[in-house]
Amino acid sequence: MGLTNQASTRLERHELEAFLAVAEELHFRHATERLGLAQGRISHIIKTLELRFGVVLFERTSRRVTLTPAGQRLYDGLAPAHRQIQEAITQAVTVGKGITGTLRVGFSAQWASDIVLKTAKVFRRTYPDCAVELQEVQLGDTFGPLRSGVVDLQLTEFPVDEPDLVAGPVIFSEPRALLVPAGHPFARRVSVCVEDLARAPLIVMAGESPQYWLDNIYPRVTPEGRPIAHAAAAVYWAEVLSMVASGLGVSPASLRAAEYHSRPGIVFVPFSDAPPLEYGLMWRRDGYTARVRAFVETLCGIASTAAPPHGRRAGQRGDGRTETSQT
């Protein structure tokens, strides 16, 4: 039999997908499961195609399925075109949702940048028309880059209580530590407590961050009401390390900072009673674009595959509720 007219060579979408599934799986049951069709449906579609085209597309035995020369030629011609069509559809949907252009993502610490970098790599593969730019945000001006539009999204220490900003999901939390000079009495301890902050001058970060945010990291009084002296202020984290090593004071930090910033002259001593530092996503209330939403969803998906630190799941808000919208 030969191909007699143009109508007889028309290929419907379900026929195309069925043929490609069998050609790639070389197994009728596996192809049926892949497409979620009723049993026997794939065989019926392939038989219909072979009758219409007048050629045998697959050789079937009790042990295996193989493409005939005609089937192989058909597959070689259809598969690349089908991939191009699927890619074009994906790109069209991406453009339609606004996931193009440039997304600027900020982070406040290197351990926060680790998951941001991993997310950016996955995000670029999923949304190739959207570039991702990363930038470190200084602790002295936590919300400034977000408000000015320098970044569109940020992973940083919580809390966030600003009318123009949205506190999104908490991604992870880290135990707190006290950064002390190597010769300080605290350096010989297994741990310190929050009340100990009244016994040593505190080195803090200077800048424009709101007082409630600074107080969460650099408190002014202990839980029992004892004053905590703020002896010096630094603009950059590297200055804090140098000031502590020089014996000018001590400074609170994430315990995880020891993995990134250990150096001679300083010791990281864990707190025994301080709550963990929470790191979460935030964005402008008027800036929850399709790009931001897509990056948030991608990052939360990546974070959820890791063991949740301190019982906090990725995707929860700082108040324990699951993040579902921008408000």
TrEMBL record:
SUPFAM superfamilies: Periplasmic binding protein-like II (SSF53850), Winged helix' DNA-binding domain (SSF46785). Residues 316-327 have a biased composition (Basic and acidic residues). Keywords: DNA-binding, Transcription, Transcription regulation. InterPro entries: LysR_HTH_N, LysR_subst-bd, WH-like_DNA-bd_sf, WH_DNA-bd_sf. Residues 16-68 form the HTH lysR-type domain. Residues 306-327 are annotated as: Disordered. PANTHER family: HCA OPERON TRANSCRIPTIONAL ACTIVATOR HCAR, TRANSCRIPTIONAL DUAL REGULATOR HCAR-RELATED. Belongs to the LysR transcriptional regulatory family. This is LysR family transcriptional regulator.
